[in-house]
Every structure is written in C-alpha cells, then in structure tokens.
Amino acid sequence: MEKEIKELLNRKEIAKLGGGKEKIKQQHKLGFFTARERINKLVDPGSFLELGLLAHSDQEGMEHKSAGDGIVTGLAKVNGRPVVVQAADKTVFAGTEGIVYFRKTKALHEYALKRGFPLINLMEGGGLRMPDGMGSDGISQMLFPQVMLRHQREVPMVTSILGDSFGGPTWLAVSSDFVTQAKGTTMAVAGPRMLEVATGEKVTNEELGGWDVHAKYTGQVDQFSENEEDSIESIKKFLDYMPQHAGKEPRCKETNDEPYRSLDKVVDIVTTNRKRAYDMKKVIKLIVDNEDYFEMKPTFGKALITVLARMNGKVVGIVANQPMQFAGAAGPNECEKATDFICLCDSYNIPLIFLHDIPGFRVSSDAEKLKMPTKIMMWNQALAQSTVPKISIIIRKSIGAAYGNMCGPTMGADFVVAWPTAEINFTGPEVGINVVYGRQLQNTENKKEERLELLKNWGFDSSPYKAAGKYLIDDVIDPRDTRKFLIQTLEYACAKNGSLSERKLANWPTGF
Amino acid sequence: MEIKANLAGVVWQVLVSHGEEIIENQDVVILESMKMEIPIESEKSGKVKEVKVKEGDFVNEGDVLMVVV
C-alpha cells in the first residue's frame, strides 16, 4: 500500500498550497495572511481537523488550479472549546465561490448546527465566481444557502472581514452575531468595477465599504482592528462571552473580584450637577468584574453603550446611555444598536442590565425621515419579547418614552431601582411649559418673567421618591451598593431556569 | 499627545493654560453641547505645549483642543 499512501500524501501536500506558491507569495506581498495561516492564528495548536482538502473546482480543466475550491473548512478548538471554522482562500480564483465551495460551506454550516458548535468565518473574496455562476443554469444553483438565511441564532456565528469582500462574504458577515473588520479592507455588496458599469459611479473601495463607513454610518461591523491578528483576538474574546450553542448558558468564570464590593469612587464620577456630563464607561468599569468589559459597536450610535461583561463570574449584557454624547439622547442609530444587542443577549441566554441617563430621544426632522418612530418601537418590541432576566437602574435622567425603552417599570424587568440622583419625568419642565403655555407666552410682554413664574408652579416631582412612594419602582438604592444589588438580584432572577431564555427573538433579523 | 473633541460643541471653559503641568484624567476643557457641559480630560500626564481653542469657539468632533507633551 506504500505507493497508494505516498500518492495520498502527495495529493494533500499539493492541495495545501491552494492556488500555488506564486499566489501565496502575492498574498504575503500585499500584506495579508493566507487562509491556513489565519486558521492557525485562531485555533489551538494542532487542533485543526480539515474537511474537504481534496475538493476542487468542477469546471473542466480547472482541477489543478483550484485546490479546496477557494475555502478551507474544518473543525478545531479555540481555548479548548470545539468550533467549526472556515477561511476563504484568496489564492484560489481570488476567493470567489464555485459550486464546490458552496457545497463545502453549506455542509460545514449544517454540521455546526447539528452538533452545536460556534461557527467562525475568516473571510474575504469577490463573491460568486465567474463564469461558474453565469447563465440561467449557473445562477439557479448558486443562490443564498438556506442554512445561512435560517440560522436563527442556533449557534454563535462570528465573521471577520480580513480582505476586500463583496457578495458572499458580505452576506455572511451581516448575517452574523459578531463582525470584525481589519482596517484597510472593504465590505460591500459589489465592487467598484461592477458599479462603474452598472451606474457609472466611480468610487474607491474605501469609500464604498471601508471601515469608516461601517463605523459611522452602517453599524454592520461590531469591532474594527488595526491588523488581522487583532481581528482574530477579538473573535476569541467574543467567544468567551458566548455559550457553545443556544441551549446553554455562557460559561461562568471564577473571579477574585469581591461580589459585594462597595463602589466608593462612583460618587466622584457621577456628578449631581444635572447639566454636567460624565463618562458612563467609567461607571460600567467600576460595576463589573475586574473592570473588564467587551464593547460592541463602540463607534456607532455613541450615545448608547452596549457591552458584554461579567458580574460575579456570570456573563451579562449592559445597555447604558452615554451622557458624553448628545447628553445621552438616543437617535436612530442608538435604537438599532439597542435592538440588535437585546436580540443577541436574549438569544444566547445573557441577562440584561440597563443603566439610565437619558434626557429623551433625539427628535428632529432628519430623525423622522430615518423612521425614528419605527426604530423606537422596534427596540421596545424586542425588549417586550425578551425573556432573559433584566435589571434596570436609573442613575440620573430617564425622561419620557426613553424611560420605557431603557426598561423602566412595567417593561418586563425583574427589578427596577433608582439612585437618589434619579430624575424621572414625562419631559423636562421647560419643555412642558412651552408645550402647554406656548401660545399664551407668545402674546405676553414679559415672556421671560412669566416663563419663570410658570416654572416655579410647575413643580411635578421628578425625584425617585415620588415613584418609590407609590411602589412604582422597587427601591431607591445607595449608588455605592450597585454592584452588590445587581449580583444579589441576578442570583434570584436566575434561580429557577438559570439565564435560559425562551428565545423569541432568535429569528429576528440580524440587522435593522 | 493631542487632546481632541469627542463631539461637536462650543468651548465653554478652558481649564488649563500653556506650560501647565497636568495629570492623567484631569479635565482640561469643558465643551457645551445639547445644553450639557461635557468635560474633556487628558489621557496622560504631561505639560501643555499648545492650547488650540479659546472660550466661545465652535469645535467639530475630532478637532484638536490642545497638545500635551
């Protein structure tokens, strides 16, 4: 059998070179790693079990140029945890998708779902391969894989955009739970060369789908990295907060951080001067285990912060307003970001914590054109259908409808409490007077004085004690006890079913 | 090191001046935006080499407020 074994080994050795040594050299010259190098950086040493190494293009005459058919697929371990991984191979027809590529990626995705493994995609490439996908026969067998469209958050799906991506890799990314993009790469529907012919628009890759576009405008990417290694590091960190599959809770991690630690520094961070902003990230850092948190979409919708963190070892998701940006007022992007994050946490059994300091929504004619009412209600509907434990803390302002969106009373929280600094109301008194007495004020001579006089008598109590007095909120707590309160209440909220969710949001879209 | 505005607003107060020694996390400028006072702090300790804005100036996100060495 020696001859046969030799032939097998020889075939595998050649297949591992993908599109060949020249193409690999070119990939390196452009400053990129190859598919195999990327997988090696991600997985535990020696753990990669490749499937489909001997596959190749089904196009006649292409067999020897297309080892793997543009995608490297297999099973592996990341920090000891089994995962399913695929990496696009730029050296084979620029990482485009032939029919065998399709077959491989579909089988891999199905296996991830069948046995409950996170699916990790290290992607780049130009989408459907030409001429494979051309003609009514080509395109008819290469439409979107159903397994991707009906993924339904069964297992965490993570995609890293490590080179220019159009079509397939882009579809996969925006269908994922977590997306990283290496700066300098592009993620878009179709490349500039296609646009040039289709519409005549001349645009660079960077303008079309560079990191800046996604950071500021689209929110389709969760984190950006300076290089490929950092992107892969982000994936590992994200996975650490995720359960193996949707039927499990994320792993608890022992901590040496005292669960009932008093937050003495919080009084220096949150000022009682209601006009003065403070950095909510400092408050979060103080509350969570070991000052450690993982932020999603830090550059998009910055008036709202969404982070994964641990409380006494248990993974939690935190939705917090950021007074440093627009005074914490949420606009359309913040609404999308909140909805997205609630879907993620609820689907993967991660309890939610809400930290309010929001003076209302950022209303404007521009916001209305961007469907602000729909965005606000989408967030509320997600909140209402979420079934993970939820704990809500009003730190400072929580005004109007936004009080509801941040999981105020009657919005499904296990507990709602306030700090003594809380200011809860329908709207600010200045705005209220303008709405009710606006016409009257227009017709008076001493507008300023009359306004002040009205303000004096417009004394609706926005202190939390009014709501606590009627038992509309559960308590007013000492801000220094916030960590203790959260850890204590989380224990009770998770006593019956852990943090397992009914996953009613699992089939919601992966973007809004 | 450059200290930049993290949002658009009007410079309400400049809290330090040229040549002053400052420490990490010290507030150096207070911007006013959305009727809120937004303190901007220094990420590092150092000496103020240049103050690029004065009270009343409008600044955009990303504009350099001062240079610290």
UniProtKB/TrEMBL annotation, chain B:
Keywords: Biotin, Ligase. Pfam families: Biotin_lipoyl. One of its GO terms (molecular function) is acetyl-CoA carboxylase activity. Residues 1-69 form the Lipoyl-binding domain. InterPro entries: Biotin_Carboxyl_Carrier/Decarb, Biotin_lipoyl, Single_hybrid_motif. Its EC number is 6.4.1.2. Signal peptide: none annotated. It comes from the Bacteria. The keyword NAD does not apply. PANTHER family: OXALOACETATE DECARBOXYLASE ALPHA CHAIN. This is Acetyl-CoA carboxylase. It comes from Oceanobacillus caeni.
